[in-house]
Amino acid sequence: MAEVAVPAEPRCGFVAIVGAPNVGKSTLLNQMVGAKVSIVSPKVQTTRTRVLGILAEGAAQLIFVDTPGIFRPRRRLDRAMVAAAWSGATDADRVLLVVDAARGVDDDTAGILERLQETGRKADLVLNKVDLVKPPVLLALTERLTAAGRFENVFMVSALTGDGVRDVVRNLAQAVPEGIWLYPADQLTDVADRFLAAEITREQLFRQLHEELPYATAVETEGWQERRDGSLRIEQVVYVERSSQRSIVLGKGGAQVKAIGAAARHELEAIFECRVHLFLFVKVKKKWAEERGFYRDLGLDYDV
Ligand code: GDP
Ligand code: MG
After folding, report:
1. Which ligand minimizes its atom distance to the CA of 99?
2. Distance separating alpha carbons of residues 110 and 182, to the nearest angstrom
3. Cα(20) to centroid(ligand 1), Å
4. pLDDT digit string (tens) for 124-177?
5. Taking CA atoms, which of 72, 155, 258, 279 is between 20 and 30 Å from 107?
């Protein structure tokens, strides 16, 4: 990794990315930070915790807070996620509200706009997925949104292609307050490698099992060993709630878990740039979603 010198007049700030599920928050974050720090998935609500991505842009260090989708909470886990998302947003120096230009203002986005008004929080509007809509549609949507909310800036981007994303980054770098960098200059992300590795496997679980697996499935990295030959030995436990789910994950003769492991390993090798030996264990752990310790580990508040 290239050395990054700390500038003489540094700026530093937290940037919260908020928006309805599936609008492209994670894609945008990854595009800005340039490293895979958060799950990108066609399914909703796979981002379960706040993940920080860190970017040095000129004299500024931008610390991104990727919030879980701000949606209407029902279950306890959902409520905890929403609370975490909003506390992240209100603590941040800048807030990016991401809206899916193709979907427009749905109930979730309307709700977020309302909350922004209530809290008096100013935000930047990021109209994403402009690759999917025609200019007149974009214009009408922009007018509607700027009438509804108080936005300091409006950006039109495609997080997928990267179109317009540099403008957002450059603007943020100017907008965050003066202050010393909070993270070492060469630190791309403070997401622990173990956590990242678990997320990679979890993504594969959802990819390969689709609707068969409930969101109440967790992956924990339990073993991590850098070996003398330069390879990495990673042991992970996949927690499911019922033995029937365990059978689904394992598949016939273990074929399914083998395929999941192979795909995850492939991706891990690309990320860590070394050979990876990945060992997956599937365990049944009843009702883990209601366990206090689990919430604490995620940095979420159980008593919401
Ligand atoms: P999040 O739930 O807000 O974090 O959304 P994701 O980043 O997971 O993206 C949801 C889906 O939208 C994924 O399938 C992305 O590939 C897709 N997506 C994100 N940004 C764009 C974009 O600019 N254009 C298009 N066409 N698709 C996008
Ligand atoms: Mg996401």
Report:
1. 1
2. 34
3. 11
4. 999 999 999 999 999 999 999 998 877 999 999 999 999 999 999 999 999 999
5. 155
